[in-house]
Write a structure and sequence with these properties.
By secondary structure, the chain is of the alpha+beta class. 65% of the residues lie in helices and 11% in strands. Belongs to the CpsC/CapA family.
Length: 322
């Protein structure tokens, strides 16, 4: 019976405060609608997709093991001297360690999309307001995600202006491509400078070996002449390979490696509908919150009235006893 009475009391309290509940609910709902339609600016999303491939030119020093075998004449005619590229082992190791491009994974590409250089170049290209469109602001409005099990990267830009969102998304993709090209060109220039210095050192070795060969020729020592000639041939071969690699690096630079490793597969389209605010959802949430808050207020008012009544009755009974 107490449960039935309690439920009835609840219903009576709600019914008694129906006007308060209705007013508060209507106010919160209208306020939410006003904010959603007139105050909160709509936000649009524009997405550009790029495909990335880590293209690393082969810049190894020796393409194969070069071996030169020469028979000696004279007293040691049965002895065979084998000269191979291990003579210049130190040089080969040096080239192998220096003539390398960084191996960028797709995750590394993803992180570089919002590189400060890329974002600043985007701001400059579009002539955006520097006071509003800072690097941090632009970065917070760009979402870069990897498309699962592919080499595709999705660049999504959120903006109040749908056309500007498209421009920013496409420009970021283009500036990122230019950035990767610039980085690769700088690395190529560095490798070319290093290789040029090594070629000069090799030429000095060749000059020295040539002088030694001329001195050996003056001695008429055939064994010594053959050794010096073989040494000179190896040095020249090494130098020629270096020059070949240098020419290859020039071709790599001319080919703009970054443009090959980053391809814009899908440019952004002007979005027709905003992604936020979700007007209907906001209104429904405000309606539900309005009902909950108003019911709480009604029960609080009823509780406050009953508390005052009990206090007044208690004081009156105490006075009567006295």
């Amino acid at each position: 019976m107490e449960e039935e009475i309690s439920l009835r009391e609840v219903i009576e309290i709600v019914w008694k405060g129906r006007n308060i509940i209705a007013i508060i609910t209507i106010i919160t709902t209208l306020f939410s609608a006003f904010l959603s339609f007139f105050i909160i600016k709509p936000t649009y999303e524009a997405s550009t997709k790029i495909a990335v491939t880590s293209i690393i030119p082969s810049t190894g020093f020796f393409g194969s093991n070069t071996t030169i075998i020469m028979s000696n004449n004279g007293n040691n005619s049965n002895k065979i001297n084998v000269y191979n590229d291990e003579i210049d082992k130190d040089l080969s190791s040096l080239l192998s360690s220096l003539l390398k491009y960084p191996d960028m994974t797709i995750d590394a590409f993803k992180e570089e999309v919002t590189n400060p250089v890329v974002l600043q170049n985007t701001i400059n290209q579009l002539e955006l307001n520097n006071k509003k469109y800072t690097i941090d602001y632009l970065k917070s409005h760009i979402d870069v995600t990897l498309i699962d099990k592919t080499n595709l990267i999705d660049i999504t830009v959120k903006e109040n202006d749908p056309r500007l969102a498209v421009k920013i998304a496409d420009t970021v993709a283009e500036k990122f491509r230019e950035y990767i090209t610039t980085i690769n060109n700088k690395q190529t220039d560095k490798l070319m400078v290093t290789l040029d210095q090594l070629i000069k050192l090799q030429n000095e070795k060749i000059d020295k070996a040539t002088n030694e060969l001329n001195e050996a020729i003056n001695t008429n020592n055939e064994i010594l002449i053959n050794e010096k000639q073989t040494r000179l041939d190896l040095l020249k071969k090494s130098r020629d390979i270096m020059i070949e690699k240098y020419n290859m690096l020039e071709l790599v630079k001319a080919s703009k490696l970054g443009e090959q490793s980053v391809l814009i597969t899908s440019k952004a389209l002007i979005p027709e509908k905003p992604v936020s605010p979700k007007k209907l959802l906001n209104i429904v949430i405000a309606f539900i919150l309005g009902i909950m808050v108003s019911i709480f207020i009604v029960f609080f008012i009823e509780y406050w009235k009953n508390s005052n009544t009990r206090i007044y009755s208690g004081n009156k009974n105490t006075s009567g006893i006295g």
